[in-house]
C-alpha cells in the first residue's frame, strides 16, 4: 500500500517537475516602474520612533512620512552624500531663524496633503513634535541633542505657521528636525486610534502609516517585505516632482550570497548590504554600477575599557595602539573598502583639523609598543579577551584573529570571544568588556556631538568608559560655540586629548557599497546609512 | 467504524496525557530564556542615543521589571488565553507571526518529506534486493553525499546551478515571485490556496519557487529513510513467510511489494515521523538561504537578539507538533499493521 502511494506521488512529482520547469517566467509587469530593493535586514515597524526600530524601518519612514525640513546633498570625492550644512524645506515652504537664534519660524506648504487627502496643518505639526518630545519613544533622546525637550517650545501661530523656541541658540536644533524621528503625523487620524493607555497611538502607528510622504505603504509583512506605491500628490522632490518609481518593493533576503546573485541576474535593482568580497567580485565583472562611499558619519573602533586594569593605564592603551596590524586588518576585514583612520602624519604632532574623525598618526611599530608596555610595568605582557558580536562576524572575525596573532608577539595573550548580538549589547551596557571592537554612527556628525555622546557620561555609547574632565569641559563649551574659528580650535584640542590619552583606537570608516543596475540613477549616501528611495530613478 | 472510534479515543487520551509534558516544556523554555545571558531591552534600545531611560521603557513593555515568579504567572495566564506575547523583532503578536509562518514551513517540509520518501523507499528496496552489489554501494554513496553536505551548501549550490547559471528556477527569495498576486488565504498553503482559487499560473509559480528548497531539504533526509528501508527490507525478505510465499510460487513483484515491503514499512513510518519533526525545526538554514518566511528562521533570529516571546512560542509550537506527529505515526501504524491498534 505504501508503495502504491509512493508510485502515485512519484508520478505526481514528476508531472509537477515537468510543469514547473516548463512554465514561462510570467508576471514581469511594470518591472521598469518598480524599484526592487533587497536587504538583509527587515522593516519591523512603520513608525521609526518605536523602541527597537531597525535601520530599514528608518529608511522606509523617510519615504512614507515627511519632516519639516531635510538635508541637502553635496559631493564628496565624486560621490553624492547628504549635507549637514544645507537644510532645505520639506513640509516647510520656508523657515526663518531669529537673529538671536532663539526662535525658528516655519511656514508650511499650503498645498501639502496627507495621504488620506486632508491638508497638513500647523496643528498636525505641533501634535507630532509634542509627541516626539513627550512620548516614551526614540525621538525624545535624539531631539534632546538639539535642545528640544518640551511641548511648550512648539507654538501654532496660524494654520500654516509654527514657531519653535529654544532656551539657547543651538546649532543642532534645525538639523535635528531633519532626522528620522520628528515625522509629521496626520494627527486627526492618529488621535482617532489613541487610547487612555496609549495617548500617542503608538500601537496604531506601528502598523499603520499616517503621513504625507512620497510613498504609500500597501503591504507590510515584517521579516518578509514591504510594498509601497507612489504618492502622486507628493511634490517635495527635486523640481517639485513626485518620486520617480511608481512602486517600491523592499524585500528581506537574509543570505548575502543570494542578494548578490539577485542583483547580478537583474532581478533586484539595488542592494547595499553585501559582503565586501562579493562587492569586489561584482565590481570586477563591470556589469553593474557600484557606488562605494566611505561612511563619513561612522567610525569603527577597537575599544578598551579605561576603568578595567590594565587598560586603565594610558601606556597599555598606547602599547596596543602601536601593536595593531592595521593594514592587514583593513585588507582582511574590508578588502580595503573604506577610509583608513591610521597611518597619518601630524606635522609637529598636532592635529591638523578640528573635525572628527581624523586619521591618527599611528601605525604598526612593535618596538614602540614594547617600550610602552615596559613603561606601564608590564614588560611580560598580560592576558585579556577580545570580543565582537556575531552580527559583525564577517568583518570582525578576521580582524580578531589578526589582533590575537599580533598582540601575541609582544606577550599579550588574547582570548577571542564571539558574542550573540544581545549578549554583546548587554555586556557593553554593563561596561564589562575590557577589549572589543564596535562601530558608532552619528546622524549629525559634528565634532562636539561625537565627543559628547561617545566619550562622556555613563551611557552605553561611551564604549571606553572615558572620564576625562578636560575633554568634557571643552566638548560642552564647543556645543554652543557660535564662532567658527574658535569651534575649530576646540575641535583640535579635543582631538589632541583623544590622541594623547588613546581612550580607544579609531581604525576606519567602512565603505557603504551600493550595488545597482546601471539604469538606476540618483543614489545618495544618507545619514541613516540607508537608501532614500525618493532620490532614485531609472534612466 | 468501531476500530476507528477506538483509535480516535486512544489518540485523544494520548494527547491529553502529553499535556503535562507540554506544560513542562513551557516552563522550562521560559526559565531557560531568562537564564541565558543577553538582555533584550538593551539590544532593542540600540538606536542612536538610546540611553538608560529607553532601556527601562522597553523593560517595562516586556514586563521584565517584575520579579520572575510574577512574570511566569502572567506568561502562563496569557498562554492559557492563546496570547503568546509580542515579538520585539517584528513588532507583531507572536501567535500571529507563527500562524502566518507555520504554513510556509509545513508546506516546505511536507513537500521535502514527500520527495525524500518517494526517492528513499525505492532506493532502500533496490539496495536490499541486491545487498553488496554495485547498486547497493551506489545507493550508499548517494545517501552519504546527501547527508554529509550541509543544507546551506547544497542549497547555495542548487541556486548557483539552477538559478544563476541555467536560469531554470525563479529567483530564490520567498514563497512566490514578488510580482504574482496572492490567492485569498484559506489554508495558508500556497499550493492549495492557488488550486482553490483556480489560478493555475499562480500554482505553477508557487511550485517552481518551492522546488529548490524542497529538494535541498529532501537531499539531507533521504539517507536515514533509505537506510531504514533497506535494513527492514533485509529482515523482512529473510523471514519465514517470504520463504513460504516463494515456495508456493507467488510472483516476484507480489512477494516484494505486498509481503516484504508492507512488513518493512513500520520502522520507515516511525523514522519518517521523527525526520519530519526534526526537519521542521532544523530547516533554519534552508529557510535562510531561500529567504523562506518560515518559523525556524524566525526563531533563530529571535534567539540571536534574545527576543523571549518568539523563542518561547516557537518551542511550544514545536513541542505540540511533535506530540501530534507522534499521534499520527501511531494512527498510521494501525493502518499498516492492524495488530497495533489492538495492542
TrEMBL record, chain A:
Homology family: Belongs to the bacterial solute-binding protein 5 family.
| Key words of the record | Signal, Transport
Where is this protein found? Periplasm
Ranges for domain Solute-binding protein family come to 87-459
GO CC, one annotated term: ATP-binding cassette (ABC) transporter complex
Q: Does the keyword Transferase apply?
A: no
Picking any one GO molecular function of the record gives:
peptide transmembrane transporter activity
Matching InterPro entries: Peptide/Ni-bd (IPR030678), SBP_5 (IPR039424), SBP_5_dom (IPR000914), TAT_signal (IPR006311)
Q: Which GO terms describe its biological process?
A: peptide transport
- Spell out the PANTHER family in the cross-references: PERIPLASMIC BINDING COMPONENT OF ABC TRANSPORTER, PERIPLASMIC OLIGOPEPTIDE-BINDING PROTEIN-RELATED
Which residues are the signal sequence here? Answer: 1-28
Task: Supply the name of the protein.
Answer: Putative ABC transporter substrate-binding protein
Q: Which Pfam families match?
A: SBP_bac_5 (PF00496)
Automatic annotation (TrEMBL), chain B:
Q: Which domain of life is it from?
A: Bacteria
User: What kind of membrane protein is this, topologically?
Assistant: Multi-pass membrane protein
| Alphabetically ordered keywords of this record | Cell membrane, Membrane, Transmembrane, Transmembrane helix, Transport
Question: Which regions span the lipid bilayer?
Answer: 15-36, 108-129, 141-166, 210-228, 264-286, 314-336
Its GO CC terms are: plasma membrane
Q: What SUPFAM superfamilies does this protein map onto?
A: MetI-like
Instruction: Please give the chief subcellular localization of this protein.
Output: membrane
Location within or outside the cell? Cell membrane
The record's section on CDD domains has: TM_PBP2 (cd06261)
Query: Which family is this sequence assigned to?
Result: Belongs to the binding-protein-dependent transport system permease family.
What protein name does the entry list? Peptide ABC transporter membrane protein
Amino acid at each position: 500500500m505504501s508503495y502504491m502511494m509512493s508510485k502515485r506521488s512519484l508520478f505526481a512529482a514528476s508531472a509537477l517537475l515537468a510543469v514547473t520547469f516548463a512554465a514561462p517566467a510570467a508576471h514581469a509587469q511594470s518591472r521598469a516602474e518598480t524599484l526592487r530593493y533587497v536587504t538583509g535586514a527587515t522593516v519591523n515597524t512603520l513608525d521609526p520612533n518605536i523602541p527597537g526600530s531597525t535601520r530599514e524601518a528608518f529608511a522606509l519612514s523617510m519615504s512614507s512620512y515627511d519632516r519639516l525640513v531635510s538635508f541637502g546633498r553635496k559631493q564628496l570625492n565624486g560621490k553624492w552624500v547628504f549635507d549637514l550644512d544645507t537644510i532645505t524645506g520639506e513640509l516647510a515652504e520656508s523657515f526663518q531663524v531669529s537673529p538671536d537664534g532663539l526662535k525658528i519660524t516655519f511656514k508650511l506648504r499650503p498645498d501639502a496633503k496627507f495621504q488620506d487627502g486632508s491638508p497638513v496643518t500647523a496643528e498636525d505639526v505641533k501634535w507630532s513634535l509634542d509627541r516626539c518630545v513627550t512620548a516614551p519613544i526614540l525621538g525624545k533622546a535624539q531631539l534632546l541633542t538639539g535642545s528640544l525637550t518640551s511641548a511648550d517650545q512648539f507654538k501654532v501661530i496660524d494654520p500654516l505657521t509654527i514657531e519653535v523656541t529654544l532656551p539657547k541658540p543651538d546649532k543642532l536644533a534645525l538639523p535635528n528636525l531633519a532626522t528620522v524621528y520628528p515625522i509629521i503625523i496626520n494627527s486627526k487620524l492618529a488621535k482617532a486610534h489613541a487610547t487612555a493607555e496609549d495617548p500617542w497611538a503608538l500601537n496604531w502607528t506601528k502598523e499603520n502609516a499616517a503621513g504625507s510622504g512620497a510613498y504609500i505603504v500597501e503591504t507590510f509583512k515584517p521579516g518578509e517585505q514591504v510594498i509601497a506605491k507612489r504618492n502622486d500628490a507628493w511634490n517635495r522632490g527635486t523640481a517639485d516632482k513626485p518620486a520617480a518609481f511608481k512602486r517600491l518593493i523592499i524585500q528581506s533576503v537574509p543570505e548575502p550570497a543570494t542578494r548578490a546573485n539577485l542583483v547580478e541576474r537583474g532581478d533586484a535593482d539595488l542592494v547595499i548590504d553585501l559582503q565586501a568580497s562579493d562587492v569586489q567580485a561584482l565590481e570586477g565583472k563591470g556589469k553593474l554600477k557600484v557606488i562605494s562611499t566611505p561612511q563619513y558619519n561612522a567610525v569603527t573602533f577597537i575599544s578598551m575599557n579605561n576603568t578595567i586594569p590594565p587598560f586603565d593605564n594610558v601606556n597599555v592603551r598606547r602599547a596596543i595602539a602601536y601593536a595593531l596590524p592595521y593594514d592587514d586588518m583593513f585588507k582582511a576585514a574590508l578588502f580595503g573598502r573604506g577610509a583608513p583612520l591610521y597611518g597619518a602624519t601630524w606635522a609637529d604632532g598636532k592635529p591638523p583639523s578640528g573635525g572628527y574623525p581624523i586619521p591618527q598618526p599611528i601605525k604598526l611599530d612593535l618596538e614602540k609598543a614594547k617600550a610602552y608596555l615596559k613603561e606601564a610595568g608590564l614588560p611580560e605582557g598580560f592576558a585579556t579577551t577580545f570580543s565582537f558580536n556575531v552580527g559583525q562576524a564577517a568583518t570582525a572575525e578576521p580582524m580578531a584573529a589578526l589582533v590575537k596573532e599580533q598582540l601575541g608577539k609582544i606577550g599579550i595573550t588574547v582570548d577571542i570571544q564571539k558574542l550573540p548580538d544581545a549578549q554583546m549589547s548587554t555586556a557593553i551596557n554593563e561596561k564589562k568588556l575590557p577589549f572589543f571592537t564596535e562601530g558608532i554612527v552619528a546622524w549629525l556628525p559634528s565634532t562636539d556631538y561625537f565627543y559628547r555622546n561617545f566619550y562622556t557620561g555613563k551611557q552605553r555609547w561611551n564604549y571606553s568608559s572615558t572620564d576625562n574632565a578636560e575633554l568634557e569641559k571643552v566638548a560642552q563649551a564647543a556645543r554652543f560655540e557660535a564662532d567658527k574659528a574658535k569651534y575649530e580650535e576646540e575641535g583640535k584640542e579635543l582631538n589632541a586629548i583623544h590622541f594623547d590619552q588613546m581612550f580607544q583606537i579609531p581604525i576606519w570608516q567602512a565603505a557603504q557599497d551600493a550595488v545597482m543596475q546601471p539604469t538606476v540613477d540618483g543614489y545618495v549616501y544618507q545619514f541613516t546609512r540607508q537608501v532614500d528611495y525618493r532620490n532614485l530613478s531609472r534612466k | 467504524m468501531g476500530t476507528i472510534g477506538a483509535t480516535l479515543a486512544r489518540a485523544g487520551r494520548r494527547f491529553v496525557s502529553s499535556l503535562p509534558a507540554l506544560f513542562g516544556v513551557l516552563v522550562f523554555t521560559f526559565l531557560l530564556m531568562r537564564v541565558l545571558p543577553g538582555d533584550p531591552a538593551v539590544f532593542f534600545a540600540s538606536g542612536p542615543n538610546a540611553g538608560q531611560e529607553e532601556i527601562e521603557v522597553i523593560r517595562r513593555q516586556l514586563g521584565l521589571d517584575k520579579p520572575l515568579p510574577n512574570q511566569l504567572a502572567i506568561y502562563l495566564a496569557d498562554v492559557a488565553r492563546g496570547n503568546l506575547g509580542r515579538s520585539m523583532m517584528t513588532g507583531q503578536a507572536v501567535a500571529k507571526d507563527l500562524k502566518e509562518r507555520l504554513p510556509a514551513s509545513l508546506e516546505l517540509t511536507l513537500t521535502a518529506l514527500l520527495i525524500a520518501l518517494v526517492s528513499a523507499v525505492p532506493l532502500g528496496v533496490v539496495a536490499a534486493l541486491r545487498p553488496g552489489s554495485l547498486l547497493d554501494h551506489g545507493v550508499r554513496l548517494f545517501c552519504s553525499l546527501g547527508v554529509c553536505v550541509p543544507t546551506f551548501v547544497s542549497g547555495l549550490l542548487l541556486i548557483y546551478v539552477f538559478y544563476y547559471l541555467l536560469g531554470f528556477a525563479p529567483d530564490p527569495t520567498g514563497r512566490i515571485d514578488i510580482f504574482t498576486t496572492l490567492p485569498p488565504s484559506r489554508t495558508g498553503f500556497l499550493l492549495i490556496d492557488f488550486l482553490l482559487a483556480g489560478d493555475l499560473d499562480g500554482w505553477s509559480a508557487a511550485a517552481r519557487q518551492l522546488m529548490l528548497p524542497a529538494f535541498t531539504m529532501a537531499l539531507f533526509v533521504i539517507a536515514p529513510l533509505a537506510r531504514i528501508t533497506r535494513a527492514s527490507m533485509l529482515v523482512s525478505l529473510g523471514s519465514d513467510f517470504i520463504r513460504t510465499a516463494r515456495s508456493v510460487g507467488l510472483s516476484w513483484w507480489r512477494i516484494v511489494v505486498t509481503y516484504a515491503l508492507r512488513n518493512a514499512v513500520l520502522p520507515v513510518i516511525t523514522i519518517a515521523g521523527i525526520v519530519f519533526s526534526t526537519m521542521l525545526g532544523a530547516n533554519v538554514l534552508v529557510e535562510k538561504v531561500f529567504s523562506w518566511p518560515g518559523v525556524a528562521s524566525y526563531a533563530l533570529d529571535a534567539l540571536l537578539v534574545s527576543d523571549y516571546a518568539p523563542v518561547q512560542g516557537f518551542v511550544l509550537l514545536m513541542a505540540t507538533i511533535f506530540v501530534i506527529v507522534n499521534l499520527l505515526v501511531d494512527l498510521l501504524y494501525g493502518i499498516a499493521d492492524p495488530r497495533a491498534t489492538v495492542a
